[in-house]
Amino acid sequence: MKFEDFEEKTLCRQDIFKGQVIDVKCDTVTLPNNSGTAKRELVFHNGGVAVLAITNDNKMILVKQFRKALEKVIYEIPAGKLEKGEDVDPQAAMSRELEEETGMSAAKIRKLSAFYTAPGFCNELLHLYKAEELTKLDNPRAQDDDENIELCEVTLAQAKAMVKSGEISDAKTIIAIQYWELETYD
Fold first, then answer.
1. What is the pLDDT of residue 186?
2. Which of the four, 21, 31, 111, 162, has the lowest number of CB atoms within 10 Å?
3. Where are the domains of the chain?
4. Which CATH number describes the domain made up of 48-184?
5. Any idea what DSSP says for residue 167?
6. Beta strand spans in 19-161 (E)
7. Each residue's pLDDT tens digit, 54-105
């Protein structure tokens, strides 16, 4: 089948909400093969970065923090949103987030992947990097004013056990752990 066999053409778009992090819109679309119309509620996001930060003793750095949308504390890899204009250099944004959240910089950085977080309704593209040869900085950038985080370090086996137990339930972190495991056993 061709693209045209799947494409939903937008008839009209309504702005629902314009925020600092996301915009919400509602599209009325024609369905493929003229089979009718439908509404699509869409979230537009500038994208983000995340980092699988591996310490010199082969442990992964996790950030423990409260997430309001979930009303609970979860474990995640260091990550953050791309500010306007940063989409041209997501690696620089990742280095900034690594420094802000861990107080470290990395001598070795490699892009692992870029993936959509929730393509059924959102266009957010997350760039995932691996950072190694970490160095603690004397005067790192400050954390964001609204961040309250705690760092912890885990081995691959501990990270996998945390996924299995549900202690790690964040998709980007699970994907990062999978990349780490693939590279470890390749």
1. 64
2. 21
3. 3-45, 48-184
4. 3.90.79.10
5. S
6. 22-30, 37-45, 48-53, 60-67, 72-76, 79-81, 104-116, 125-136, 149-154
7. 999 999 999 999 999 999 999 999 999 998 777 778 999 999 999 999 999 9
